[in-house]
Amino acid sequence: MPRFAANLSMLFTEAPLLERFDRAAKAGFKAVEMQFPYEAPAAAIRERLDANGLVMVLHNFPAGDWAAGDRGLACNPARQAEFRAGVPKAIDYAKTLGVPHLNCLAGKPGEGIDEATTHRTFVDNLRFAAEACAKAGLAVLMEPINNYDVPGFWLNRTGKALAIVDELGLPNVRVQYDIYHAQRYEGELAATMQQHLAKIGHIQFADNPGRHEPGTGEINFAFLFAHIERIGYTGWLGAEYKPATTTEAGLGWLKSF
Known about the structure:
With 257 residues, the chain is an alpha/beta fold. It has 9 helices and 9 strands. A 9-stranded parallel sheet has the order 3-2-1-9-8-7-6-5-4. β5, α4 and β6 form a beta-alpha-beta unit. The radius of gyration is 17 Å and the shape is globular.
């Protein structure tokens, strides 16, 4: 059966951060993930996980000033030092929280930076993060994000990410495959996941259009979830969507699957 993790940066946001763990467990989730856990002490989050019998499966490296429009730092040569300074912080949180994967957001390259420099910066930063994470027994992911939602985001296609996995050749580097972003830019969801499953470390989902819960758009999740199980994916599926109304009102899909 599919195993679903609630993304607490997107779901249950009607509640303060630490209360979202309680609500996720009450709704029936056994796991959670977050974009950025850093607004709360890691020990406080660990306490909520334990109290609710939850595991945490993913969070991101620090990605700059989100409210100001940053969507990652790793491909921007002017912010390399800032990205690398955030790696130990992410690892410390992951170790406290028992998180196995850390996601590296490429972000935008910055004004006037050429493609070769952007590519080299991202690969060098990803290698730096992966080597540090390997010492802690952690995997590093990179997530392609479509340019309709985030104009200028550099790592925008699955094939681009897969090629970087091959270029690095490190056993703890894989792709975070987000079904919503892939559907918006590429399609071919089932075939892509089947062909490249060995290079995919984590899967997230939302329906399209709107990035809402399954059943609100065009994606056939009944087929897709069964397909993901059939091809042998054994990880968690991260529910990273914007509820069409409230989180609880849109959780019918969780009971269905």
